[in-house]
Amino acid sequence: DAGVIQSPRHEVTEMGQEVTLRCKPISGHNSLFWYRQTMMRGLELLIYFNNNVPIDDSGMPEDRFSAKMPNASFSTLKIQPSEPRDSAVYFCASSPGTGWGETQYFGPGTRLLVL
Amino acid sequence: GNSVTQMEGPVTLSEEAFLTINCTYTATGYPSLFWYVQYPGEGLQLLLKATKADDKGSNKGFEATYRKETTSFHLEKGSVQVSDSAVYFCALSGGYGQNFVFGPGTRLSVLP
Q: What is the pLDDT of residues A29-43, one digit of tens each?
């Protein structure tokens, strides 16, 4: 079975540009999570969806970040405009049910570098 | 809110040495506890989990016991291998509505 798929795997962009990260969760999973990983702050939960509905977006850093899940098999995380401090590895993860207390299955991540 | 404290790394061991990585948590209720492992250039993957007090999770020679009295979930392995070199994350997830929290990670390097 395919795991969580993320694209692109690497992204280099210039400050001020729009960046869109994509995620396809494991088929049949009902919860989807977006994380950001940096050396300074570790792994941070940005937003959590259940049944395509955003449940907790308290970790979204600011209005420049937005996330959508238009259907059960696709989600996007958008940064507009991007800034150098957004450089990080962004992970998408999915889990079978409500998400809480469950194992999360991570994608390979998108390495973002904003110049 | 919920939180996880994990021993600072990096940890460097010789092959076949005994490994312990300490993890303690703060949470309301009865969270599930996890250890995830991240190999270079990859996403996190579940190593083991425990869902209630006194449960022992185990996988690939690694073990951890859910200790409610000490709010701990320490990771152990009796004999590490070079291939165990990775970053290890302790994590917890509470009941519905409670956040999923990861520790800062502990980098393990095993030397031949």
A: 999 999 999 989 889
State whether A100 and B95 contact (CB < 8 Å): yes
Chain A contact for B89, CB < 8 A?
yes
Contact A101 B44 (CB under 8 A): no
**Dist. CA A62–CA A111, nearest whole Å:** 20
- Radius of gyration (C-alpha) of chain B in whole angstroms: 14
Question: Model confidence over A40-65: pLDDT tens digits?
Answer: 988 999 999 999 999 989 889 889 99
